[in-house]
Amino acid sequence: MASTQHPSNSSKAYPGHVGSRPRQQMLRWVDPRHKSAGYLGFIFNRVAGIGLVLYLYMHLIVLSTLTRGPEAWDGFVAFAKSPLILAMDIVLLAGLLGHGLNGLRVALVGSGIAVKQQRTLLNGVLVLAGVLLLIGGALILVL
Q1: CATH code for 37-142?
Q2: pLDDT tens per residue across span 80-137
Q3: What are the C-alpha distances in Å from 131 to residues 13, 22, 54, 127, 128?
């Protein structure tokens, strides 16, 4: 009976060892250096979308404090002015700007407009989101 071992498994250091190949494949999957702009935009939109859905559920839970009366709401407003929550508001703003502006890029490319300029559009989205984030973050911290 012929052996059906995979070539990378032929030099096992211990039983069950398959070498570093799966690890290299995993690292290659998350390595952004050789990915297309469309792929990077797709991944960013999905991650930001999941974050925004989680925020939506948290927001609904927070709004339920209104049913407990003005004292509970006033306590929440005092908590919402803490530096940790203000920092989370800036992260939320980053997610909203990135997801929304990248969605516009996806709509343009999906409509057949500027298909060959995906990398330029993605860079433009990142720059515009960064500028708006700086302005919005400053306003969140000042107000």
Answers
A1: 1.20.1300.10
A2: 999 999 999 999 999 999 999 999 998 998 899 988 888 899 999 999 999 999 999 9
A3: 53, 40, 25, 6, 5
